[in-house]
Amino acid sequence: MVSSNSDLIKQLPGFMGQAELEVTMAQLWGGRFTRETDKLVYNFNASISFDKKFYKQDIEGSIAHVVMLEKQGILTKEEKDAIVKGLTGIREDVESGVLQITEEYEDIHSFVEANLIERIGEAGKKLHTGRSRNDQVALDMRLYIRTEVLTVDELLKELLETLLRLMEENMETYMPGFTHLQKAQPVTLAHHIGAYFEMFKRDRLRLQDIYGRMNYCPLGAGALAGTTYPLDRYYTASLLGFEAPTLNSMDSVSDRDYVIEFLSALSTIMMHLSRFCEEIIIWNSNEYRFVEIDDAYATGSSIMPQKKNPDIAELIRGKTGRVYGALISILTTMKGIPLAYNKDMQEDKELTFDAIDTVKGCLALFEGMVRTMKFNPSVMEKSAAMGFTNATDAADYLVSKGVAFRDAHSIIGKLVLYCIDKNCSIDDLTIEELKEISSVFEEDVYEKISLKTCVEKRLTLGAPGPEVMRKVIQKEKEYLTADWYHEMKIPAEL
Question: How far apart are the C-alpha atoms of 276 and 367, rounded to whole Å?
């Protein structure tokens, strides 16, 4: 039972639970205030528990900022050198575990600045010259998202390489193609997997678009209206590998379009993964047996010893909703925010970080699952035959013999009913049985409606025929040899 408002506050997501601790609240403001912030308010307001994730980006941005300040004569070379050395030391100590990012600090910015001042003294107090936390956090978030865009892109590329290998290996693995989850026409496994290849390729194109649109530097925008200091924003942008500085200071500190776009792209990636997982789950069932998932990517039952559950595929399918939730959350947060920065925007981080980590984990696991699972070509081919996937081709055969298509459609419908009664495929019928339904049938029908023929004669671009599939695979290989981000101005670590 909740006994007080304090208890309710402690239960809020993101609350650090430090109200009882007597800690010194490290923050970058307070001169105007005459009373100390209530501990509960401080903890509810603080973001250190999650924005510590981009300490590297915060330090990288700070180093670029002071290098620019020295270039502009705002800091001396000695001050710049001391600050850069101090910041580099903080980064190294955090990475080695010597320095811990603790919750006595309000946010990552106060952590870095407080430790810098402690290490180098008065010069550290000049770090924040010509800067606000508003443009600072906008920069940190852009740098973080920019890196994660590249990481997700690389994982997608690895998945595409695996899918392309499977396509090459299964050019003659015949299977039913489906509409409405009903067997429709014969295709190859290569062609089916190729559909997902196109989906994930589009996902990479979306990431490329996002990277280009977000690659502008907000640092120098100040709180919302720029600064009176003679900053060289173009120089800062170039140091950090941005295309250029942003052009409106109010938009610079309040823009989170790139977060929304990235979460939208991540949601689309998860949707594609979920669709593929759904098919793998179906194919893995005893009713289909198209595929067997490797033991490393499956689990058993605590009570039913025969079970081999496709848990990874199911979890990826389930975690899709988790990523969707992050997108809807930030859209809802941003919809009512007036210009410029508002504290609501602090909510852009936790769920975004979680969504990114979720997608990266799902991509890595999915690639491993697909790479190791075994297909059953004979089962797939039999399923295509017993599903009458060559019925359309049988109708086309009659049309080639002079039968009107509508009449041919009716004849083949009757033929399918006859096969269902006999529990056989069209190919299993004797020529005598075929002629009983239509005298037009001749011995050449068997070759004309074989799965191999049905697939091979489909040679339009995008079809499953092997001739055109080889051309498509070659195009995909050429696509994978080039990485779009190699053309970007990504700087070495400052």
Answer: 11
| Catalytically annotated residue among 285, 301, 378, 400 | 301
- Note if 486 is an active site residue: no
CATH no. for 382-479: 1.10.40.30
CATH C-level class of 137-232+255-380:
mainly alpha
pLDDT at 131 over 50: yes
* Average pLDDT estimate for 29-53: 69
Determine phi and psi for 236, rounding to 5 degrees. -60, -45
pLDDT digits (tens, 9 = 90+) for 258-300: 999 999 999 999 999 999 999 999 999 999 999 999 999 987 6
Q: Is the pLDDT of residue 23 over 60?
A: no
Q: Examine the residue annotation and report whether 410 is marked as an active-site residue of this protein.
A: no
pLDDT, tens only, 457-477: 999 999 999 999 999 999 999
Q: What is the mean pLDDT of residues 108-118?
A: 96
Topology (CATH) of 1-129: Fumarase C; Chain B, domain 1 (1.10.275)
Q: Which of 3, 180, 439, 486 is catalytic?
A: 180
Q: Where are the domains of the chain?
A: 1-129, 137-232+255-380, 382-479
The share of the chain scoring above pLDDT 90, in percent, equals 83
